[in-house]
Amino acid sequence: MVKALAARLSVQLNAALVNDAAAVDIVDGHICAEHRMYGGLAFAQEKINSSLAIITLAPGVQEPCASDNSHQCPTETVPYVAPRHEILCRERRAKAASSVDLSKAKRVVGVGRGLAAQDDLKMVHELAAVLNAEVGCSRPIAEGENWMERERYIGVSGVLLKSDLYLTLGISGQIQHMIGGNGAKVIVAINKDKNAPIFNYADYGLVGDIYKVVPALISQLSR
Fold first, then answer.
1. Average pLDDT in the 48-60 region?
2. Least confident range of 61-65, 147-151, 157-161, 172-176
3. 20 to 30 A from 152, CA-CA: which of 60, 135, 162, 207?
4. One GO biological process from the UniProt record (predicted)?
């Protein structure tokens, strides 16, 4: 919705548009925005040359700013102009409130295809509770199996982590997922495939079956 609105505004205002910016800065008097491209495989830096620009930020890029009442912005009252094409509201539905915001979590336990059944999420949540962590997942778990809500999906088109710890369970480590997980300060990977790409990103790695490792971790950490 935000991207669609930004696109329409950029056309109406003849403004430059950069979506999902990972960083915004002023270089030599020009606004520059950095964003991902090629499915997250690379970063591009765009220099804004127009007098007006619209920039949307990727999730988790910036912490909420505290309000500053010292700034006095001039306001102007303008008459209402009816739209050329009216939008009719047929129905209103309240959006279900999300129970989690992974972009703000300090610790995250992520689960992937290594999980065999939805019921096995119980042990993942138990481990997360011991670690005082939130639970996230790779795209197949959220959108393929529908075992977890979309807000828990970590990846290039999902949540971008800024956590102190990201513990992955049975996640292979494809680039599309790691674009979302790479922002964590420490990555710990557990996977039974010693050749899984996740170990190239991990600070600490353990080759093992999550069905054996996770219960052992819960037992030790609960002492």
1. 87
2. 61-65
3. 207
4. fatty acid beta-oxidation using acyl-CoA dehydrogenase
Per-residue pLDDT tens over the stretch 94-126? 766 667 889 889 999 999 999 999 999 999 999
Among 200, 164, 157, 168, which residue's Cα sits nearest to residue 183? 164
SS (H, E, C) 185-208: CEEEEEECCCCCCHHHHCCEEEEC
> Largest Cα–Cα distance of the chain, in whole Å?
67
C-alpha 17 chain-centroid distance: 21
Tell me the C-alpha to C-alpha distance, in Å, between residue 68 and each of 34, 55, 65, 71, 73: 27, 21, 9, 6, 11
Residue corresponding to tokens 């220099």 = 47
CB atoms under 10 Å from CB of 136, counted, come to: 33
User: Among candidates 160, 57, 23, 58, which has minimal Cα distance to 101?
Assistant: 160
pTM: 0.69
CATH architecture under which domain 102-221 falls: 3-Layer(aba) Sandwich (3.40)
Domain ranges of the chain: 2-57, 102-221
Token pair 């999300």 in the structure block, residue? 98
Choose the weakest-confidence range: 13-17, 23-27, 98-102, 103-107: 98-102
Contact criterion met (CB below 8 Å) for 114 and 148: no
